[in-house]
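Chapter review: from sequence to fold.
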Amino acid sequence: MGTLLAERGVPMSQCFEELCISRPELIEQIHLDYLAAGARIIETNSFGANAVRLARHGLENRVNELNWQAAQTAKAAARAAATTVAKGANIYVAGSVGPLGISEANARESHIDREAVFREQIGALLDGGVNLVIFETFTDPDELLLALYVKQSLHHCPAICCLASPESGRLPSGEMLGAAMRRLIDAGADLVGLNCITGPGLARRLMDAVPIDAPLAVYPNAGRPMYHEGRYVYETSAQYFAESAKAIAAGGAGIIGGCCGTTPDHIRALAFMLAEIVPTERVQIVVEKLPDQPETTEPAETSLLDQLAAGHRVILTEFDPPKNLHLDHYLRGAEALVAAGTDFLTLADNSLAILRVSNLALGIRLKQMGLPTLLHLSCRDRNVLGLQSDLMGMAAHGIRHVLPLTGDPAKVGDHPGASSVYDVNSISLIEIIRRMNEGFSQAGTALKRSPGFVIGCTFNPNAKNLEAQVSRLRRKIDAGAQYVMTQPVFDPALIDQTKEATRDLSVPIFVGVWPLLNGRQAVFLHNEVPGISIPAHILAHMEGQEGDAGLAAGMRVAEDISRRILGEFPGIYLMTPFQRYDVTVRLSGFVRSL
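The token string follows.
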């Protein structure tokens, strides 16, 4: 449907599902074109017609209308075809339901009831008179199981459950494709199968990774696309697509169709090719069990967790990469900080969305100098592909410690016209890194060895709702975080509150300390830097203090806070103010003396 709508001039930015209302004749004609080509199951134009996806177009309140009309339009085409191009044929209308495009964690955070969202869409399709429901392009088996449960609670009509799997056969959750399909069958799916992502050749190979003797539904793409003038263009010929489908039929597929890039020409060739083929009974396939654990190698550096376990007081020191290419000052500072007692230099990733030297490149440089590093990794600037590529680059250079962050939006920084990516947030990125430690990328590709990442997370004790922050922190730890780094704290009472609120957590917490340089800086940080709150008595203490007197006053505050932190926590997180590493060197010496 999407392929033909794009070919017929509909902009990709438009809501395709809304065309059921504004241009029903266009949608009906596409249905008729596929039926004339030999299709006997057509899908409603409702793949993304759920409230979550429709909200992107301001149409979240029209779910019932759009889905009901999508079903009616498809049924009208089926009735017309039954008296013209498909006389005497059985034609079925499948209600198309796609994933919501939001993870369970994000749904909870946004107070979205995923079950209710599915119930609204599926109910409207059933009211519109579909013969069956097809769930397609799901990558999360648990989300698909939820959608299937909703359908079963509403109607007994058949359900086809299709997963979109990478060629590895391992889904982003880490579950193997066959195991996920078995769960779907056990939950009552009438047919399971594959659609999207892969072309017909790869789809056939994936079938061999499914140890299920029931027939499969297989809807491959028309090969791999190229991107041309704002559109994805598929150049796989109809003849090749149909020839490849013979092997899919021989592998025991019961329903064969096409997903992205397949036009009526592809379906016509497919129908002709399959006309004389007798369906093959699918036999039980034995799939070789993959090893549960990847190969391991000796870690390139001792982790902060090992140091803490050995009774060592760990000092993390943030020393942001510079905003220019004059690196001599920075490298001298890094050496001085480690010499003063810093265990790991933490390098921010364009913090506050302000351009700096790549922390990965600088981390590699410091690694070559024998200086231990901990890299922040922001979701703002990279998609999931880029994030994982950088992580693999870190692993290739023996950098183990990483702090996943959602990241400040680009519009608040020095390049406000730049795009913020946010494919995932920090919690999802933590899950991805945990999966990499298990030996697999998000797409299920085997990494051959575990990178052995030590995964951190952030926590803001300064937030007005500390309980909500702790709840989010628990989600991060459940996702795989192994240590916590906080925003700078200036109020001693917050240290006690943080200790009490996190007492039952099993991971170490490094509370942040920022040595103030003067009174003006204190006012600036309190009023203009997100996540920092300085109590009134500290602001009063720093007021009017400048120069050496200001630094002395700021150091007294930092030393008092550091002493309180180390009375409750086994390590500390020092932040270097505006490249003044001499200040943090001095504070490190104080911490080591305690």
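Two observations follow directly from the output. The CA atoms of residues 43 and 94 lie 5 Å apart. The longest strand covers residues 132-138.
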